[in-house]
Design a protein that fits this description.
Blueprint lengths: L13 E10 L5 H16 L1 H6 L3 E10 L4 E10 L3 H9 L3 E2 L2 E11 L2 H4 L4
Antiparallel strand pairs: 1-3, 1-5, 2-3, 4-5
Length: 118
């Protein structure tokens, strides 16, 4: 039996945040997922975070300087919760006792449009 696909009118509307990460040590995509979930749970609570529909879609390493590693990523969240996710990510300042800075550099409705910020 084939599963039915939800029509577009019943699907959740998503927004895609392009974020810039600067951190003192190397991280992987799994580390970034942990950073994002920990930040959102810490600042918004478990109930609100469960509504965000968070997912890391793409993860890119953009370079390394003497002081930090630089990464960019595309993070999906549900429409209506963008402000809460952005504020939670902006408040992150350390991970494993290393300094980290996360800034949002773009917001779009599709993954393709969010890739232009990278």
């Amino acid at each position: 039996m084939k599963l039915k696909v939800l029509p577009p009118t019943l699907r959740k509307n998503n927004r895609y945040l392009t974020i810039d990460i600067k951190i003192e040590e190397e991280i992987t995509k799994d580390d970034l997922v942990g950073i994002i979930w920990d930040a959102c749970i810490r600042f918004q609570g478990e109930i609100n975070t469960s509504n965000f529909n968070l997912w890391v879609m793409k993860f890119y390493e953009t370079g390394k300087t003497e002081d930090y590693y630089s990464y960019k990523a595309i993070v999906r969240c549900q429409r209506g919760f963008v402000r809460q996710v952005r504020s939670s990510l902006a408040l992150v300042n350390n991970y494993n006792h290393k300094r980290v800075a996360i800034t949002t550099i773009g917001l779009s409705g599709t993954i393709k449009a969010s890739q232009k910020y990278i």
